[in-house]
Design brief:
By secondary structure, this protein is α/β, with parallel strands linked by helices. 35% of the residues lie in helices and 25% in strands. Strands 6-7-8-3-9-10 form a six-stranded mixed sheet, sandwiched between helices. The protein has a four-stranded antiparallel sheet with strand order 2-1-4-5, with helices on one face. α2 packs across α3, α2 packs parallel to α4 and α6 crosses α7. The longest helix has 18 residues. It binds adenosine-5'-diphosphate and magnesium ion. The site of adenosine-5'-diphosphate (ADP) has 11 residues, from α1.
């Protein structure tokens, strides 16, 4: 699988949100896109998801131009957006029910993923019975059962308290270590971007341009101590100097 973002521009009226974005992603990468608020991160994610169209340029997945949403790209937003009247397993199966498969195969998909997201035994709970972090894990599971080519995440832990956020970051790292799915994860948090990714992309302030595109060469699995690694600190310094401008 590969994703090509070719000379991408996005303007809103006279304001340019993204300017000449050129990137290439390979299957199995965990790409973190870092940028300050208003630099065009969500716009980039929406373009990848096909939720909006570029003003100029194009996005290709495996050579095929993408300009509308598809089951090959699933988004996890800041708010879990679960259906409150459906149980955990029904929420997870919801997207599948719009596509193909039998009820039994959908039930198998949800029961297979529940232990992976640490929610074994919560299948018939309703979202209001879960903590914020658990709800967001259900949202991630709902996306993963679609078996997308790429999982798009827009500041998915931004609404969580600091402690839950840290545990969700560790959860996502171990999930990726198990599944090696392709993830594009957007954040304005430097530590989060470096802790999670295999590759760091830093955007400039508006209009967003690619200022840095660099592999994150930190051992996996990662623990919180990785934040003291010299490579982590070097990346952090470089990212900070870009965000400061
Ligand atoms: N639908 C829209 N109409 C007009 N301006 C928009 C729209 N969406 C985003 N913008 C503008 O584009 C810029 C980038 O927005 P966004 O991608 O949401 O940034 P980020 O997610 O990095 O905070 C901002 O200045 C924002 O005001
Ligand atoms: Mg945003």
């Amino acid at each position: 699988m590969n994703i090509v973002i070719d000379s991408l521009y996005k303007t809103f009226g006279s304001a340019t949100a993204l300017e000449n974005i050129n990137l290439q992603f390979e299957g199995g990468e965990f790409i973190t896109v870092l940028g300050s608020s208003g630099c065009g991160k969500t716009t980039l994610l929406h373009l990848l998801a096909g939720l909006t169209t570029p003003t100029k340029g194009a996005i290709y997945i495996d050579g095929e131009q993408k300009d509308r949403p598809g089951a090959d790209r699933v988004v996890v937003f800041q708010q879990p957006g679960l259906f409150p009247w459906l149980s955990v397993e029904e929420n997870i199966e919801f997207g599948l029910s719009l596509h193909s498969g039998t009820k039994a195969s959908r039930r198998k998909a949800s029961s297979d993923i529940l232990p992976i997201i640490g929610l074994e035994g919560f299948a018939s709970h309703k979202p209001y019975e879960l903590s914020g972090g658990m709800q967001q894990r259900v949202a991630i599971a709902r996306a993963l059962v679609m078996k997308p080519k790429v999982l798009l995440m827009d500041e998915p832990f931004g609404a969580l308290d600091a402690q839950t956020r840290a545990s969700m970051q560790s959860f996502l790292v171990s999930l990726w270590d198990q599944l090696h799915c392709t993830i594009v994860f957007i954040t304005h948090d430097i530590d989060e971007a470096i802790f999670l990714g295999t590759r760091l992309i830093v955007l400039t302030a508006r209009p967003g341009r690619v200022a840095l595109d660099i592999p994150i060469e930190l051992e996996r699995p990662r623990s919180a101590e990785v934040a003291f690694d010299p490579h982590f600190l070097d990346l952090k310094k470089r990212a900070m100097s870009i965000l400061a401008h």
